[in-house]
Design brief:
Layout: H1 3-15, H2 23-35, H3 37-53, E1 55-56, E2 63-64, H4 72-75, E3 80-87, H5 90-99, E4 104-108, H6 121-124, H7 126-135, E5 140-144, H8 149-161, E6 168-171, H9 187-195, E7 198-199
Helix pairs in contact: 1-2
Bound molecules: zinc ion.
Length: 200
């Protein structure tokens, strides 16, 4: 009699894994999908395509569908490839890119060094970033990380790892809220923050 519920349970279980979605919300979404089958199938197809086709750029960790694993931004020869802007999150990258304040390359960390869990080199790819800076003779690394203990630990780690290279390491001016809220920072604030960057 309740055979439909086990299928729905599966949907709820998978939805509950999404950040910020609890079981109650997941159940509401699952029931909505039962009532809106057409939209649910479109969503399902879009999710499958995204999972099948999108990967992280092997140079900067931006999203790409290119078969060689290098995103359009990294292939763009009009960009200044002597500078890398290291951002904490994908949201930071999108905000900076949409403001047109910067025309160099990027490296998306996807997290920060944690005082509790230490330096997770594999997850943050910090080792790869350091290698890239040295091998590509990068002139400047611009850090866009939160002014928090985690942000400071990440800055220190990058600085220490690159101390024998000639690269200039700078940080954008403080006062710009980071994390996801950087999306709401207006363009002129970002321009000022980039102009006011200082050596670390
Ligand atoms: Zn890229």
């Amino acid at each position: 009699m309740l055979d439909g519920f086990s299928v729905l349970d599966d949907v709820v279980r998978h939805l509950s894994k999404l950040p910020g979605i609890g079981e109650k919300t997941a159940t509401r979404y699952a029931l909505w999908m039962v009532e809106h089958k057409e939209d649910a199938l479109l969503l399902s197809n879009a999710l499958k395509s995204a999972a099948d086709e999108i990967k992280l750029c092997k140079l900067c960790r931006n999203l790409t569908r290119n078969a060689d694993g290098v995103c359009e931004l990294c292939k763009d020869t009009t960009r200044d490839n002597s500078v890398i802007c290291v951002v904490e999150s994908f949201e930071n990258f999108l905000a900076i890119e949409s403001s047109s304040v910067y025309n160099g390359t990027y490296y998306i960390l996807g997290g920060l060094v944690s005082p509790l869990y230490g330096i997770d080199l594999y997850r943050l790819g910090l080792d790869y970033l350091v290698k890239r800076v040295i091998e590509e003779s990068i002139n400047e690394v611009i850090l866009v990380v939160s002014s928090t203990l985690e942000g400071d630990l990440t800055t220190q780690y990058i600085k220490e790892s690159l101390k024998n290279s000639k690269v200039k390491i700078t940080k954008i001016a403080s006062g710009v809220p980071l994390g996801t809220s950087i999306n709401f920072v207006d363009k002129s604030t970002l321009i000022e923050a980039f102009k006011g960057r200082h050596a670390v």
